[in-house]
Write a structure and sequence with these properties.
globular; five-stranded mixed beta sheet; five-stranded parallel beta sheet; mainly beta; single chain; 38% strand
Length: 180
């Protein structure tokens, strides 16, 4: 999620859109997100889901990385990376956690090392300090536990033409095919 800025007031955490707005629900787990160059990061208004955030990169946020009306709605943030010390708005109070606070949950401030964020390429470069630093998460098992169905991770992404990507179900490539 990137480049979602508006002309709203930076000082007012609720004046514009958030990259992710969690309204309603009971629990939410946000895994493997990149939130970059936005007005607000993750917003949880009163009555929002109790939320855990894992393996998320948040940077160039105009207001707050997290904006939470009810303190108990942000359960945990772990293995997340920020490009600068993040600002949190919790229950109407603004604060910036110390590096010790961040380290306790294995979060940190680090330049992520994208291939080319200016052109929208947020893949991690081979030299990125974030490679191998995330928490391993079995997305298929987690999804099946919550929804009772498979996620379908046999879906693959393939580049065609001028960078256009399509998603399709794929049978395994035959032996001797490229990449096998």
């Amino acid at each position: 999620i990137h480049h979602t800025t508006t002309g709203n007031t930076v000082e007012n955490a609720w004046s514009g859109g958030a990259a992710i707005l969690l309204v309603g629900g009971i629990t939410a787990t946000l895994i493997n997100n990149t939130i970059w160059d936005v007005d607000g990061g993750i917003q949880i208004p009163a009555g929002g889901a109790t939320t855990t955030v894992v393996n998320t990169i948040i940077g160039q946020v105009k207001r707050a990385a997290f904006q939470v009306e009810q303190r108990d709605k942000l359960k945990r943030v772990t293995h997340s990376r920020f490009d600068a010390p993040p600002r949190f708005w919790l229950a109407g109070a603004s604060f910036v956690p110390t590096s010790k606070d961040l380290a306790r949950d294995e979060d940190s401030v680090v330049v992520p090392g994208f291939l080319n964020s200016a052109s929208g390429d947020f893949r991690l470069a081979e030299t990125s300090p974030l490679r191998g630093k995330g928490l391993p998460v079995d997305l298929e098992a987690a999804y099946q536990k919550v929804h009772g169905a498979t996620l379908g991770l046999d879906v693959i992404s393939r580049d065609i033409g001028a960078g256009l990507q399509i998603l399709e179900k794929s049978a395994p490539a035959p032996k001797g095919a490229p990449g096998r």
